[in-house]
Design goal:
RNA-binding; GMP Synthetase, Chain A, domain 3; KH_sf_prok-type; alpha+beta; 3-stranded mixed sheet; RNA-binding protein KhpA; KH_dom-like_a/b
């Protein structure tokens, strides 16, 4: 899951070296914290959060295959 979020984020931003994805294991779910450069934040979130929502949808679909619950947070 971490690799999937990282690949998607790096393809969207201008500064792919600044993309960081950190896994935080919760009690019932896995939290992926996506951190990008401040100037690339708008590109990852998108207009009215559409791109962020799409990233979350793709990750949830991949997580269902593995019977996991994954939450993507953009920092």
């Amino acid at each position: 899951m971490k690799d999937l979020v990282e690949i998607i984020a790096k393809s969207l931003v201008d500064n792919p070296d600044a993309v960081e994805v950190k896994e935080v294991a919760g009690e019932q779910s896995l939290i992926l914290e996506l951190k990008v450069a401040p100037e690339d934040m708008g590109k990852v979130i998108g207009k009215q959060g559409r791109i962020a929502k799409a990233i979350r949808t793709v990750v949830k679909a991949a997580a269902v295959k593995e019977n996991k619950r994954v939450v993507v947070e953009i920092i």
